Amino acid sequence: MIWLQFAILLAAILIGARLKGIGLGVMGMVALAIYLFVFRMRPGEPPIDVMLIILAVVSTAATMQAAGGMDYLVRIAEKILRSKPSMITLMGPLVTFFFTVFAGTAHITYSLLPIIAEVATQKRIRPERPLSISVVAAHLGITASPISAATAAMITILAGQIELVQILKVCIPACLVGILAGVAVVWKKGKELEKDPVFLEKMKDPDFARELDASSADESKPLKPGAKTSVIIFGVAVLLIVLVGAFPAMLPRFEPGAANLSVNANGSIKMAAVIELVMLSAAALMLLFTKTSTTDVAKASLFTAGAQAVVSIFGVVWMSATFMEANSAAIQAALGEMVTAAPWTFSIALFVLSMLLFSQAATTKALMPLGVLLGIAPNNLVAMFPATNGDFVLPGYPTLLAAINFDRTGSTYIGKYLVNHSFMIPGLVSVSGAVAAGFLFAHLFW
């Protein structure tokens, strides 16, 4: 019976992935309905905390975008990237990583990818190199961000066993090690543009050759009046969350009692609630001080992306939680001995599930509780956190497709066999390197 239920889960994920957008969420609900009404399975806990985190962070990021803050950040990033064009293969991924760490979402990279592609092309560096590793670096930034939904899910699952700062101390340096390993493998990947037959054929078109070296930099467009203010408010909010995570004694404490979405059983405030409170308060301050319209916030691309993420995570995680809880005994029996002998093998399960779910937060919420159930030590679970970045394997994630479209030379591609694409090698090396480094840092800092 478990294999039939698992087949239904896989079918829902695969069909949902093909539908894109909210497809994962609605197909997850279909599978959940089958579990409830056909198999009479007890429904698991819906991922309310993760959904609220996404809503809060994305709403605040969208407010900053509507106020012009994203344009200001992109302008800063452009100056950094253009300052060392010969080092774009290194600078590109570092910039996308730290921007994602700051914003809590990889969607910020859509504005950076065309700049990376342009700088590389004008320097005649194969754009595939910086673009592929920059996309992977942005994804890794989610598991190193203090305000991402994935990090909040980790804190919630391991409540009382870890603090936010412990995750950051392990995952930020571990992800950087993984990114540098990825940079090393793509540094000379593929043919040089001057020797690439596809590029040379395109250069025969004089219009293509002329447009290729035309800069798209636009310094003349003025920033909105509240652009810098919105970035400052957002930055202070992120800093405040990190400080509270480092010094939880700063928060008020209440009498022990029944736990809810805001308070733990011991009376301490949950970190997820702190992130939601601080982020939405920051959004309110941006609206007041930058005079940004709430209508503009609702129309922002980040707000739309966040709404899709909430629906997707709602359906697919609720479905996965129901399957896991109903079959926990069988799963424990199958994996328990192996994971006890070699805890790192659990990272393989995280990676495979993230390939299908296209979400670090959904993977964390769906599978990390099983890691706790199997008795894996909290420091080992944190070390394996970067393994939730397998969303590059099947080239359907928006950031991958955007990178391919922004590369006018055609060097960034999806291969004939679907998985032999530009992101596979740097992705596998970076994620593997991050997990390996994670174990090292987890045992050094714990």
From TrEMBL:
GO terms for cellular component: plasma membrane. Signal peptide: none annotated. Keywords: Cell inner membrane, Cell membrane, Membrane, Transmembrane, Transmembrane helix, Transport. It holds the Pfam family DcuA_DcuB. It is a multi-pass membrane protein. The chain crosses the membrane at residues 6-38, 50-70, 90-113, 133-158, 164-187, 231-251, 271-290, 302-321, 341-359, 366-387, 423-445. It is found in: Cell inner membrane. One of its GO terms (molecular function) is C4-dicarboxylate transmembrane transporter activity. PANTHER family: ANAEROBIC C4-DICARBOXYLATE TRANSPORTER DCUB. Belongs to the DcuA/DcuB transporter (TC 2.A.13.1) family. This is Anaerobic C4-dicarboxylate transporter.
